[in-house]
Amino acid sequence: MTNKTVKPAEGKLGIMVVGCGAVTTTFMTGVLMARKGLAKPVGSMTQFDKIRVGRGADKKYLKYDEIVPISKLDDIVFGTWDVYPQNAYQAAMYAEVLKAKDIEPVRQELEQIKPMKACFDKNYAKRLDGDNVKDCKTRWEMVEALRQDIRDFKEQNQCDRIVVAWAASTEIYVPVNEKVHGSLANLEEAMKADDREHIAPSMCYAYAALVEGAPFIMGAPNTTVDIPAMWELAEKTRMPIVGKDFKTGQTLVKSGFAPIIGTRCLGLNGWFSTNILGNRDGLVLDEPQNFHTKEVSKLSTLETILKGECQPELYGDYYHKVRINYYPPRNDNKESWDNIDIFGWMGYPMQIKINFLCRDSILAAPVLLDLCLLSDLAARAGKWGIQRFLSFFLKAPMHDYTKGEEAVNNLYQQYTMLKNAIREMGGYEPDEEID
Asked: N or C: which end of the chain has fewer CB within 10 A?
């Protein structure tokens, strides 16, 4: 049973990723290995998850591609931009996320993926200093250069469709400025005036992607597409925008565990979260201005699940702190600790400790795959603007804060939104409710 309004996934899908670091090379290597039958894309919802469709005697559990037309891994073509010129094979070896034995079988394909020159402003990522950078005088020149890159890549690789995703470093925090970010006309004017304070390089990538008919995914906590001007552009171009910040380790745990406390009506006194991380992301986040962008993203999760205004006796006055520390010996193997101080019957205190020793890029790679495939699906289904149904994959899901809308951060509610959207695009009834 298919919905005739969803266009089929015909031809090649070009996935162009900003940043050719640990996450991107792990993602590309895994897809290429899976295509050869040498690895399994574990952690990918689009490849493994099954959703119930129908009720009673009509009930079936189907994989996503049995419900909606999703691009096949064999049809993906990879492109990337990076401030460092090393090809994807060299970058994958340098990242040291994967063992050589899991990279060598696809070495030839990875060596063919050479990063295009990046649009870069060192003020937005002071710890990075690559030389594979475009010589653009203004932000508007950045936009035009990136548009040309997208057009050239699409033509050279004979792609039918393109998705652009940001998997580069977290930029410094850019507060929303109504005069610049409030309307598309103002945003364009600021780009042409080379307003470097309010226009981050990532905004140039997003603008270029949308104008060239490609969905844009923001995998970092950057302000980028989380502004009314970009929402306006997404509506004008009829393109999906997705963001922000891949939900991988600690926040995934938080969005799944906080509902346990809330559902059980236990009280919360405090939640302290800390991380150590040693890859390029950790290096960039060691800069206070860049960390602040991430901090805002990670803090937002808890406050929308355990709401003080709804249950003041239980959640009216808890302390929430998030820390990230750069620790080179761990490289991509991130470790997070959560100390949760709760209280129960008659106010008696208890503690919960969660220690998650995870691999950052191993968790991020399937999220990137799913967001690319589902953004492409959304575009073919005629869904444009903020894709709320993809909140499941994101730390700080976008929402229309100008109208008082609140993000959904409860993992189980997010999963219901995802399933309902897949059902609906597949012509089935979106039959689960979010309480």
From this structure: C
State which amino acid sits at residue 321.
K
Q: 271 pairs with which residues across the strands?
A: 320, 340
Instruction: Please report the sign of the dihedral spanned by the C-alpha atoms of residue 35, residue 37, residue 43, residue 48.
Output: positive
Structure-token pair, residue 375: 């953004």
pLDDT at 128: 83
Structure tokens at 334: 């991130």
- Measure the CA–CA gap between 262 and 107, rounded to whole angstroms: 48
Q: Which residue has the tokens 């189980």?
A: 412
With CA atoms as reference, report the closest residue to 117 among 156, 149, 93: 149
Closest of 302, 307, 296 to residue 320, by C-alpha: 302
CB-CB neighbours of 42 under 10 Å = 12
Choose among 413, 406, 391: nearest CA to 218: 391
Please, are residues 299 and 350 in contact by the beta-carbon 8 Å criterion?
no
**Smallest Cα–Cα separation from 200: which of 166, 242, 233?**
166
Question: What confidence tens digit (pLDDT) does each residue in 231-262 have?
Answer: 999 999 999 999 999 999 899 999 999 999 99
Tell whether pTM > 0.85. yes
All residue ranges of the chain with pLDDT < 50 are: 1-3
Measure CA 273 to chain center: 21
How far is it, in rounded angstroms, from Cα 200 to Cα 177? 13
Rounded Cα distance, 29 and 27, in Å:
6
Tokens of 93: 């070896």
Where are the strands (E) in 278-329, listed by range?
Answer: 319-326
Cis (ω within 30 of 0) for the bond into 244?
yes
Q: Each residue of 6-15: pLDDT tens digit?
A: 999 999 999 9
**Count of H-run helices and E-run strands, the chain:** 16, 13
Would you give the DSSP letter of residue 367? H
Among the listed residues 345, 352, 268, the one whose alpha carbon sits nearest the alpha carbon of residue 313: 268
Tell me if 72 sits within 8 A of 46, measured CB to CB: no
